Amino acid sequence: MVASEVDIFHPQxxxxxxxxxxxxxxxxxxxxxxxxxxxxxxxxxxLIAPSLPPGPWDRAERLRLVHALGAGVDGxxxxxxxxxxxxxxxxxxxxxxxxxxAMILALERRLPLALEQQRGRLWRPYSARSLAGRTLGVxxxxxxxxxxxxxxxxxxxxxxx
Length: 161
Prior knowledge:
- The chain is of the alpha/beta class.
- The protein has helices at residues 15-21, 34-39, 93-108, 111-119, 143-154, and strands at residues 6-9, 28-31, 46-49, 65-68, 85-86, 135-137, 158-160.
- The strands form two sheets. It has a five-stranded parallel β-sheet. The protein has a two-stranded parallel ribbon with strand order 6-7.
- The chain starts with 5 loop residues before the first strand and ends with a strand.
């Protein structure tokens, strides 16, 4: 069986080529122009992309796999139903969950105000509420949402997902 050519679409300059270089031993084609990608639809076999431009995706008869460049696949829903879509779901859940908590804590503990005062050499008191006993709502309990919820539970929050 002949190995499939992998088309890598990314509109950001250099991103598609960098991804292609990261797949040694594979025949890869880096595509940055949406029009060029649309012109290749009938010839696509394997496609890696963050999202798809609108186009005649029903003509992608040779397409056997689409891989999203992130956890979500919303930008790839134009793919014909017979084509499997893979993604990086859960791959970065610990990091994204921790980052979400870094932002929650920074805002709740009023870190921007503290940094502003520090830069201005001002030491005015301000209030910052405790998290314990409060309620955290998490929309979506996939890997990232579960991670955020677990950390919220550790902080003593009532977690609703």
